[in-house]
Amino acid sequence: MKDAIDALGARIAENSYILVGKGGCIMTYPIDFGKTMNIVAINSSYEKWEGPWVVPADFGKISAEFSGWGPHAQSIINLLDRPETMAWSMWDHPPAPTYCSGHIAMMGDAAHCSTPFQGQGAGQAIEDALVLESLFALVKTPDQLPLALKAYDRIRRPRSQRVCQTSRESGELCALRFPSVMDDPKAFKQNIDWRMDWMWNRDVGLERDQAVKIYQKLLEGGELDPEFD
Ligand SMILES: Cc1cc2nc3c(=O)[nH]c(=O)nc-3n(C[C@H](O)[C@H](O)[C@H](O)COP(=O)(O)OP(=O)(O)OC[C@H]3O[C@@H](n4cnc5c(N)ncnc54)[C@H](O)[C@@H]3O)c2cc1C
């Protein structure tokens, strides 16, 4: 963090920013209770990735890939010249047809891992946990468990898979190649505002209550409503 403040100033180093550009973006934000500024520099032009998914980063390569960016970006990239920097390949899940089968369910990244463009991976795992723990509290016998898991799947699968989808689209936005936006700043702001609003302003308590209602309906012999979302 000290090096980051020296290079970028406290306003930038101690807050969250995304620098967007053609074919990639650079995110910076404080972690570790403010002791470290984390940098995520993303090159979105790779079509495929061979070999291990996480490898020690080659600073020369990163520097070359961002060489056409402006001086502010260069100051950030120069901070990456240290041995602990890692290179990660980015993956997400195609939508699974279900998150449950009988007495078994998937949650978190196992069910819906997403790209990092909306910082939502752990958030979605926590939303899964909220719904699951509320349902588990109501399960009294082993044969009720599959019904609880069906209610979980009904509520959590649409939202978490939409998060994967919008995260992927945000990656395109941040690389300035989302078709209806490209590098138009006004359209960019409108689009990203809508995406974050949809994500952050969700009533997760309501989502949990809906899952409980669905479970109770299934317990009484009712059917899943295909229209419900
Ligand atoms: C570089 C990076 C940055 C990220 N930044 C953010 C962010 O800013 N915000 C955000 O919300 N999310 C972020 N994420 C995503 C977030 O880390 C994941 O979505 C989240 O950790 C998923 O939690 P999980 O419990 O589902 O899976 P994991 O955290 O992967 O936990 C699974 C655990 O299971 C263990 N395990 C695996 N197999 C077995 C086995 N056979 N037996 C026993 N244990 C096993 C693993 O060791 C691991 O501990 C980031 C991810 C990465 C890689």
Largest sheet: 3 strands, antiparallel
What characteristic shape results from the CA principal axes? elongated
Strand order, largest beta sheet: 1-2-3
- Average pLDDT across residues? 95
Number of strands: 7
Which percent band covers the strand fraction? Answer: 5-15%
Helix/strand-derived category reads alpha+beta
Oligomer: single chain
Indicate the percent of residues in helices.
Answer: 40-55%
> Counting H and I runs of at least 4 residues, what is the number of helices?
9
Q: How many structural domains are formed by the residues?
A: 2
Nearest-angstrom radius of gyration?
21 Å
Order of helices and strands: HHEEEEHHEEEHHHHH
List keywords for this structure.
alpha+beta; binds flavin-adenine dinucleotide; 229 residues; 14% strand; elongated; 2 domains
Report on the structure:
The chain has helices at residues 2-8, 10-13, 59-65, 71-78, 109-112, 121-136, 145-174, 185-200, 204-219; strands spanning 17-21, 24-31, 36-43, 54-56, 86-88, 100-101, 104-105. With 229 residues, the chain is α+β, with helices and mostly antiparallel strands. The radius of gyration is 21 Å and the shape is elongated. Strand 1 (17-21) and strand 2 form a beta hairpin. The N and C termini lie far apart (43 Å). It has two domains: 2-88, no CATH class; 100-219, no CATH class. The longest helix has 30 residues, at 145-174. The chain has nine helices and seven strands. The strands form three sheets. The chain has a three-stranded antiparallel sheet with strand order 1-2-3, with helices on both faces. The site of flavin-adenine dinucleotide (FAD) has 11 residues, from helix 5 and helix 6.
